[in-house]
Amino acid sequence: MILENTAKTSRNWLAGLALGAAMAFGGAATTAQAQNDITVTHWGVLMYGAPYAIARDQGYFEEAGFELGDILTSSGGGTTVRNVLTGGLLYGETSLAAAVSAHLTGRDIVIVNTGAATVADILWITTPDNDEIDSIEDFVGKRIAYTRPQSVTDMTLRMSLDAAGLSADDMELIAAGGIGDGLTLLQQGAVDAVPILEPIWASQRDNYKAVLYLQDVLPRVAQTVGITTSAFAEERGDDLRAIIEARRKGVQFIKDNPEEAARIFAEVYDRDEAIMRTAIDAMLEIDYWSEGGFIYEDMDRKMDGLRLIDVVEGDVDWSAVVDESFLPEDLRSE
């Protein structure tokens, strides 16, 4: 029964992920003329979009002087970057990895704020009857899944192993494909532990056992950032400031009113309110959403992880890609 119910619930969430990818594919082409559209990675599915959903519902964009068009989704960080660069979109929230990779290959990227301040929304789980795994130390000799090579789950798994004094050679690491693919492999007994993230985990807590919370083994690692192009940074600075301010107010609303935020978020994402409340509470516990300011130590830590999986080489000169002038003054570095 667990397998059947889990499969059904997982299909519902994965249908959302697939829809997000389809919408992202069509989004850049059909909205290139929409000057006030923005894009958020995995909008409609994952937790990155909560502050924007709240800000739109509460009228914070209009209060800040920005007439928001549509919020477009994407299937991942690289797609978000492409939507901003080639789709004529003013602003996008994307993975820090995708933004840095684009910058290092000479693309016209300006990072303007922090989005998700930690990767601790990701965790590893196993089946509830697996008595052989209760912590990362028990990964030794087991088959441990991540999503894809050079993905955030690949990076955070290897960082966690390093932090625990373990080696990838101590176990079998398996690229499962996606979160849903990993759950299928786990249900079939083909792997021993798989990654999952909120809010999918909030819908699956009764069906699995958590064995690795990243916050238990890793210091904070920055996850997503807001980006624009140099042309928009020069021409539409006031609009960028308004977006960042509205998002900040959305984050503050979530912290002050988690129950109401869950209701709004569930309605926007068309999900169960109780599940979204569980997910929001979990994110508040790890201080997931930044109000926008940069913590360069956490960003450097992300670069350490990306070097570990051969995504980047060398150091990043943050002053060459980050522009803090669009942040409220109290969030800027001293």
Automatic annotation (TrEMBL):
Residue ranges of domain SsuA/THI5-like in the record: 50-261
Keywords tagged on the record: Signal
Signal peptide from the UniProt entry: 1-34
InterPro entries the record matches: SsuA/THI5
Superkingdom classification of source: Bacteria
The protein, known as: NitT/TauT family transport system substrate-binding protein
